[in-house]
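Entry 14. Structure prediction run on the chain below.
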Amino acid sequence: MKYLMFVCTDTEPDADPTAAPDIDEWVAERDGKGQRLMGSVLGPASAATTVRVRDGELLLSDGPFAETKEVIVGFDLLECADLDEAIEVARAHPMAYSGRLELRPLVDLD
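Output returned:
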């Protein structure tokens, strides 16, 4: 099953960020196991463009649409047997210590 893992900042990071694993080791291990299909760091929220259409009119806004202190800073596309495995993959990610990770299953539309 595929999961999209949003990598987000957090206003309440772990008190000891030195306990976080190394990101390069996390990526190498997940890639080696076939659990991480792809991933990337995102540009800053200030570079975002929000696109909406209302009553047929194109509306563009600079920056993220949501008014929040937490922002999405990256993502990983995971291939896991089930949610439990995806949780274990997320648990080992460095941003689980200083940010937060949101897992969402991809929906098969077929």
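The longest helix spans residues 23-33.
Filed with the rest of this week's runs.
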